Hints:
Layout: H1 4-22, E1 27-32, H2 36-49, E2 54-58, H3 67-77, E3 80-83, H4 87-99, H5 106-128, E4 130-132, H6 138-142, H7 164-173, H8 178-181, H9 194-198, H10 202-211, H11 217-229
Parallel strand pairs: 1-2, 1-4, 2-3
Helix pairs in contact: 1-2, 1-7, 2-3, 2-7, 4-5
Amino acid sequence: MFDAAKTKNDIVLWIQDFFEANGKGCNAVVGISGGKDSSVTAALCAQALGHDRVYGVLLPQGDQHDINFSLDIVSHLGIKHMEINIKDSVNALLESMKAGKIQTNRQAVVNIPARIRMASLYAVAAIVNGRVANTSNLSEDWVGYATKFGDSAGDFSPLSSLTVTEVKAIGRELGLPSKFLDKVPEDGLSGLSDEINLGFTYDILDRYIREGICEDAAIKEKIDKLHEVNLHKLSLMPSFQLIHNANP
Length: 248
């Protein structure tokens, strides 16, 4: 049985320990989408470090239809925030590729904004003496629903061992309003919800992760395939190891 109260307290202590060892006195930098993951991450950081040591960074690409959720959560938490619109940066890169006669495809176009967002977060971290929070959860990571070196990056990851169901439970334990926790998750890139993109619900995925149960054979096969082909996103970069021969 998942103990949300204990887990919340454990994560708060873990964040405090991380900053003690890896940036004593530094600030937490959190990309804010207004959904459950960034809201819960920001709330955990605020409880662990104090509201004055958390920076929420809003990263719309042009006009964001649900930007009010992002503004509301930083206001609710009482944390400092800033907004960086990445539209011009994305367009400039795409135009530069076009000028170089490089033909883009959908995958490149969808992933570029996520990587520019992460570059923006690290730029902010350099300015405010910060460490960047990764906001991915176990459910998304399990099926590779993240951009490598984009939203899958970060300096510390409070939610990566929690399913979507468990993240929501932590959010309720933190007293976050349900509108942030139950907001329909979107990737902010393709204009579609996570579950439409994936082809199954997080409830189905979470049950399969925790209990190994999935009644729909086709969905089970799809989850297994996604997990297998995306394992590289969860692994350290392979590195050739030079072996020195002591005898010439």
